[in-house]
Amino acid sequence: MSRVMLVCPEPLAHRQPAGIGIRFIEMARVLHEDGHDISLLSPNDGPIAAETLRDVSERSDVAVVQGHIANDFFAHARAIPTVVDLYDPFIVENLHYYAERGAEVFTHDHATLVSSLLRGDVFLCASEAQRLFYLGMLIAVGRLNPIAFESDPHLDSLLRIAPFGVAPPRPMPESRPNAVLFGGIYDWYDPILAIDAIEIACESIRDLTLTFAHHPNAGVTPQSQTERAMQYAKERDYVRFVPWTAYDDRAVFFDGFSAALLTFPQSIETDLAMRTRVYDYLWGGLPIVTSSAPGTDEIIQRYDAGAIIRGEDPRHYARAIVDVVRRGPVPGTREFVADHQWSKTLAPLVEFCRDPRIDRNKEVFAARLQVPEQPRSIFQKIKRRVLTSSRA
Q: What's the confidence (pLDDT) of residue 280?
């Protein structure tokens, strides 16, 4: 079997991983159970040292990378067969940061993604919608090309679907309190709509509560919507904010709720995202009331595991919340858990690690990476004029 190097972009030492960290922990477990030797690296106390990336790659047969940490990997590691995990479409998630942070975020995201698409040997994504999105990007950088198409018309050897997974089934409690879980608030969610919906639902279920969780990596995750929600909820005693729950303790945490709620506006991010928490909540036995999104809709409908709301009327969400809380556990969650075991969802990764290979044709049609020039600041413009006039 292979020696596999997993390079996770999220800190793992605190044992409170979010979606990406959970995915890498489970990758390590599944690959270890398949007989591979695993080295799992993450930036726990700062960036992973260049020497560490180089040394671990020297004794590895294959690597798995994701997100911006891939830049450090490709800069310092030995060239070995590399899986680039595209499960998280970060370039789309971060589009709305332009007003707050300017062009820098998009420029860095774009350069990172293009670099990974040029250098990876095989790619993983989470859904059919993501597959089509990334195939478009792969043809744009020259990786989907006549040679790749001729050898594999469906491009499975280049890009595979490997969705999120869940842990083995567990015993469920006989009863649950009238409590609704939202979880962490990213800036593409709408927590105000959720709070308003619960306020209306409380007219039917008096002791109903709504719980948000503080993100474990708040320093690297913008929190503007979290602050907005905390201000809005000050006078509402049915809204709670709790610390992020450690991954190994989440089962007991989920048992304290009867349903989950997700509210978000419609966008291209909605079209491409596969919500990690949807998988985890269904594993926890929680029916979900959610805004409409292609990936989530398919899961909720297939397993009859909640309600899908189209539009932004809190009354519609409130009615659905009352229905699912009173209905109680849904059998579809057990079927979902059986169908989405990590050993099944990560099968394409296991297959590649059993027979890792470098794509020898990846540079034949590859586009050359061009990073657009950053807009000059007022200070830079003045400095340039001073230098120009002094030279004249």
A: 94
